[in-house]
Amino acid sequence: MRAEKVDKIATTVVLALAGLTGLAVVSFLVYLLVVGLPNVSWHFLFSPAESFKSGGGIRDQLFNSLYLVVLTMLVSVPLALCAAIYLSEYAPQNRLTALLRLAIEVLSSLPSVVIGLFGYLVFVLQFGLDFSLLAGALALTILNLPLLTRSCEDALRQVPALQRQAGLGLGMSKWRVTTKIVLPAALSGIITGAILSAGRIFGEAAALIYTAGQSAPAISYTDWNPFSPTSFLNPLRPAETLAVHIWKVNSEGLVPDARAVSNGSAAVLIITILAFNLLARLVGSLIKRRLAK
Amino acid sequence: MTEQAALEVKNLHVAYGAKQVVQDVSLKFPARQITAMIGASGSGKSTVLRSLNRMNDDLATVTGTINFHGLNINQPDVNVYRVRQRIGMVFQQPTPFPLSIYENVIYGLRLAGERDRRVLDQRVEESLRQAALWDEVKDQLKASALALSGGQQQRLCIARTLAVRPEIILMDEPTSALDPVSTSQIEETLVQLKEQFTIIMVTHNMQQASRSADWTAFMHQGRLVEFGPTAQIFMNPQEEQTADYLSGKFG
Lengths: 293, 251
Hints:
The structure holds two protein chains of two kinds.
Chain A: H1 2-36, H2 42-46, H3 59-90, H4 95-108, H5 112-126, H6 133-157, H7 161-169, H8 174-202, H9 206-209, H10 242-252, H11 258-292
Chain B: E1 5-16, E2 19-30, E3 34-38, H1 45-52, E4 61-68, E5 71-72, H2 80-86, E6 87-90, H3 101-105, H4 107-111, H5 117-130, H6 134-137, H7 150-163, E7 168-172, H8 180-193, E8 198-202, H9 206-212, E9 215-220, E10 223-229, H10 230-235, H11 240-246
Helix pairs in contact in B: 5-7, 7-8
């Protein structure tokens, strides 16, 4: 009887606390959408921001955010994947690799403001990149690397050791076992992890304020030459992202409709991140299904 | 022993770090015969088996000589990948890749660079026939290997090993994860395979050793206690430890 009672109480407490957490998250999400969505329109999404009058949109900021995610992933996925392959397939268990893992863990808990200032000193000033998408992408790479490396490593480790042995037993080299057996089997986990991390960096502001900059100069979406200063593809132009825009409009916005702009931007931001998460699930399960066929 | 040896092990020692797990094992594995390696858990039989095609390279220190066609393959400058193509391995649990039955069988061949469709087709049929799986799967070669039963998957893994045309097949408790029906199917397959291949098998199953093996090696605490024809080992063991183990006094 006693054990049953304890079990009942524990179950109730766990359910109540889980419900509370869920309720807090859902009501926060609903609030953001209810307050923000009425301000979102095609006009809002596809017109440039205004500096002094109301009625401005977020076209460039939204594009900058997406483009920055692409640039960051181009740099961080290969790095994280190589690091993860090393850690999961090749790294011996010794002090050096233990130190390496510790370094990755410490890096993952570094505040993003610190990463932003580091990026300002190193990429913006030292490397002379100025406030630019590239400087922002490198700062976000530092932010992204630890978690992405960890999720790639987890995905690789989940591939059963027997699969590797089967490959080796057939006379395959270690590299071939890694690329032909382990990587394909881990692909779904790696891609899911990458998309989730893309969603995470999409909402990052603090690391970007001093690296990608806070200004969104006029850009041309018809100029496909990435070396032209006004081209939307130019990685060396300063670029305010959506998250930075929200911060800036709120803290020093001069537009009369600052409130509406920031609420609308927040709604767009949260919906995009939601889309990233749903996409991650979809792609992950699609790849799994294709493999199991 | 008058039989011709497919593989000859001399003074084999294996250590995991500072822990010596196999000590001074010397053994000749007769060609085109089935040799069973028996012994309690931790006796070192699997370790010896895995040393024979250098699967222990990253895990353990293996010293001693392993002669294969007059070459000591336990040397650093020997190409281990070539060794493993000649000395294949089948594991405790079926390990099909998440591909079709057809692709699984030719996996090793594909990687060795074989592209000719006719050669591949022919080798798939030959290997699946040798592994006694052809009749069951010939109409569904394009289906996923993961849809097969455990016993079928294990025979598929045997076919996959056969497809690279090794001389020796090492089997590490190949039926320990299978039901009795699948087990007896695999045992029948083994008897047919020894016409062409040398089979060395680690097993915990005494009946399996006595049913299918021509030769039996008994290991205890890292040492080879006794090696001889299976009938002699089981009916008339020369060593007391062997007799004790077979009668269930330990192990």
